[in-house]
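Lab notebook, design round three. We kept the backbone fixed and only want residue identities now. Task for the bench partner: fill in a sequence for the structure below.
Input structure tokens:
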């Protein structure tokens, strides 16, 4: 246990340092790309603009990695992530997250079904960026572990005072949940064996089935989502 704690400490320090060091060059790359695209240094051809778009996409992705590493450092240290609570439009957050994954989903011919309740979703008090971050992690996992032409489903349910028993069982909603909006993301991928369910939020954990498939990931997504 002492060795595991020491290793976790070294990893978290490394994440913090890496995130800190990455920020300066990444911001410089993004600023340079933006200047070039705005033609501040001369006219840009269509072919050059396409290359700049790719560079901009990669720099944004790298910046998000830096943010994720910094969040992971906070979580592994046992501290709470910083939140900025405000009234949130959950439907708009889901649609933004789905839109961000549209290209990746289309590339694998995965269909995303979003089913907002007919009666609408009441506004909730929370951090919209963090809610979208959780959705991003979950949709990311569905893309990684789904095969072509499968379906990913996102559903929502507003809970007032009681949760219908069927819904509580199907969505694994803890008892005592009141005045909340529940979001559920499901896919048709390989699934997670019940025996491994308690480990899925552990940093760097990968299930037995998942180890048979190569995926590009850091093993921290679900840890941050929790």
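Proposed sequence:
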């Amino acid at each position: 246990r002492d060795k595991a704690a020491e290793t976790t400490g070294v990893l978290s320090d490394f994440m913090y340092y890496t995130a800190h060091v990455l920020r300066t060059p990444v911001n410089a790359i993004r600023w340079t790309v933006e200047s070039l695209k705005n033609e501040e240094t001369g006219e840009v051809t269509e072919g050059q603009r396409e290359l700049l778009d790719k560079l901009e996409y990669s720099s944004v992705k790298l910046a998000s990695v830096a943010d994720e590493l910094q969040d992971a450092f906070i979580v592994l240290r046992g501290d709470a992530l910083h939140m900025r609570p405000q009234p949130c439009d959950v439907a708009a957050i889901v649609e933004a997250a789905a839109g961000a994954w549209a290209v990746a989903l289309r590339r694998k011919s995965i269909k995303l079904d979003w089913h907002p309740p007919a009666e609408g979703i009441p506004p909730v008090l929370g951090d919209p960026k963090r809610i979208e971050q959780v959705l991003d992690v979950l949709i990311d996992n569905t893309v990684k572990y789904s095969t072509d032409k499968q379906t990913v489903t996102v559903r929502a349910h507003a809970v007032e005072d009681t949760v219908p028993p069927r819904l509580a069982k199907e969505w694994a909603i803890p008892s005592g949940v009141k005045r909340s909006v529940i979001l559920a993301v499901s896919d048709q991928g390989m699934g997670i064996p019940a025996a491994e369910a308690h480990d899925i939020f552990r940093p760097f954990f990968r299930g037995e089935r998942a180890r048979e498939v190569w995926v590009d990931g850091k093993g921290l997504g679900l840890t941050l989502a929790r």
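Keep this in mind before ordering anything: The beta strands are 86-88, 111-115, 124-126, 151-159, 180-186.
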